Amino acid sequence: MASVVLVGLMGAGKTTIGQLLAQKTQLDLIDLDQKIVADAGKRIPDIFEEVGEIGFRQLETQALRESLAQNVILSTGGGVVTQAVNRMLLKNCAVPVVYLQADASVLYRRVCGDNNRPIAKNLNLQGFQDLAQKRADFYEEVSDLTIKTDDTTPDMVTAQIFSVY
Ligand code: S3P
């Protein structure tokens, strides 16, 4: 299997599945958030604090461009699809894009109050569900395959991806 890009909301398991895919394929894993942190030399909440979401999204687009040029497993941040330029990059890349989809209330329980996730930190359940609804079409738009991760294990999700690619 060649490289794969994982998209989906915060808490959907992109990093976990990315690690499993990287182990099995022997490809490197790029976690886009970790790359942004390494490139900027700052934690995500500090980037949001200093340059706001707009500044963060610019760093994210730059990191996405660089990562898509490499033969790696790429795990993206949940908001990557909010930018039209990123959606274009994802739709035009030659790599399969897999959408990890899960129920918003389940994801909310995993990420609410997480100080390292500035977007989720201040949202209540309704706010998170609204965000999920706003983004759902964007995930579908950029992806080649959707996998529901609610009632399954990371190993099963990984096996499903392998069975397709
Ligand atoms: C964000 C998701 C985060 C991170 C940033 C913004 C979002 O990534 O990129 O906090 O807008 O959904 P994860 O999906 O890995 O939590």
Automatic annotation (TrEMBL):
Which residues participate in ATP binding? G11, A12, G13, K14, T15, T16, R117
User: Which Gene Ontology terms cover its molecular function?
Assistant: kinase activity
Pathway given for this chain reads: Metabolic intermediate biosynthesis; chorismate biosynthesis; chorismate from D-erythrose 4-phosphate and phosphoenolpyruvate: step 5/7
The record's annotation in Pfam families points to:
SKI (PF01202)
Q: Where in the cell is it found?
A: Cytoplasm
The family database entries (Gene3D superfamilies) matched by this protein are listed as:
P-loop containing nucleotide triphosphate hydrolases
- Cofactor(s) demanded: Mg(2+)
Its job:
Catalyzes the specific phosphorylation of the 3-hydroxyl group of shikimic acid using ATP as a cosubstrate.
Supply the HAMAP family for this chain: Shikimate_kinase
- The name of this protein is Shikimate kinase
Species in which this protein is naturally found: Agrilactobacillus yilanensis
Q: Which gene encodes it?
A: aroK
